[in-house]
Amino acid sequence: MKLKIAVQKSGRLYDDSMRLLKECGIAIANGGNKLKAEAANFPMEVYFLRDDDIPQYVEDGVADIGIAGENVVYEKKKQVEVREKLGFGKCRLSLAVDKKETFSKEWLNGKRVATSYPVLLQQYLDRNKINAEIHEISGSVEIAPGIGLADAICDLVSSGSTLLTNGLKEAETILSSQAVLISSTGLNTEKENLVQKLLFRIRAVQKARNNKYILLNAPDEKLQDIIKLLPGMKSPTVLPLATKGWSSVHSVVQEDDFWSIIEQLKEAGAQGILVVPIEKMIV
Ligand code: PRP
Ligand code: ZN
């Protein structure tokens, strides 16, 4: 039995999706334009599909799991389970208008908005009691205002360069999105076990990404103060240096706290601080 995973064929999520699988130790020999590929060392089959179609394939069970943007998952309203946020493919679904326009929610009343996200846009309009007309178009939404098809658009913004090159400005974010792992509802036990195995690896990779391994030297009399600053996975490792009266301290710190901890460590007397990426982290 093989776990069938759907990933984006090309585009914003492709590289990071493939990198995640690779970091999970799953080797996929994909020949570029191929629709299907097999993993060498994990019972997995990879389907390369259009990102917008992935929730549908997963709902139908054609694929057991998939990597898709939250934006398409929620827009398509398919019966799938969101299993894990993946931390990449971050973007937002935003309203955008001509850069010379003064935008307000009230301004939207009676306006025409072009989008490929009619469901999410309608929810936003209802929430805000705005009466605007939705023009659903499937691609190149950003050119709609320029050709007089709409007064505003609602589209994905990542770097913002698409808006910029089309003379538009982001007016309001209606949804923040990132890539998620989704699964079919009601997978059999064998497949669910494989999903658990994959999730275990994904979490180890993500944890590692959010943490750094730190090594430093400390004079023994400062050791207690320094150890207090370093939580570590259990507690820091302390090893004596060849030079008497000095120790080497090893620990793990979170990326977010990293800079403030480094400053405090230096103040407390730490020297020769090394910070090293962690490849996998299992707690
Ligand atoms: C989105 C959106 C814009 C672009 C914005 O498309 O429709 O075209 O990305 O990115 P930027 O702010 O970095 O310029 P998506 O990635 O969903 O591709 P698709 O339309 O081919 O599915
Ligand atoms: Zn898309």
Written account of the structure:
The protein has 283 residues and is α/β, with parallel strands linked by helices. The protein has three domains: 117 residues, Periplasmic binding protein-like II (D-Maltodextrin-Binding Protein, domain 2, 3-Layer(aba) Sandwich), CATH 3.40.190; 87 residues, D-Maltodextrin-Binding Protein, domain 2 (3-Layer(aba) Sandwich); 67 residues, Alpha-Beta Plaits (2-Layer Sandwich). The strands form three sheets. The chain has a six-stranded mixed beta sheet. It has a five-stranded mixed beta sheet with strand order 8-7-9-6-10. Strands 13-14-12-15 form a four-stranded antiparallel beta sheet. Helix 4 links the parallel strand 7 and strand 8. It is globular, with a radius of gyration of 24 Å. The structure holds 1-O-pyrophosphono-5-O-phosphono-alpha-D-ribofuranose and zinc ion. Zinc ion binds next to loops.
Mean pLDDT: 94
Number of strands: 15
Rg from alpha-carbon coordinates: 24 Å
CATH homology-level superfamily of the largest domain:
Periplasmic binding protein-like II
- Output the CATH class name of the largest domain: Alpha Beta
By CATH, the topology of the largest domain is D-Maltodextrin-Binding Protein, domain 2
Q: Architecture of the largest domain in CATH?
A: 3-Layer(aba) Sandwich
Helix content, binned percent = 25-40%
Strand count, sense and closure of the main sheet?
A: 6 strands, mixed
Series of H and E elements: EHEEHEHEEEHEEHEEHEHEEHE
- How many individual domains? 3
Helix/strand-derived category reads alpha/beta
Number of helices: 8
Percent in strands: 25-35%
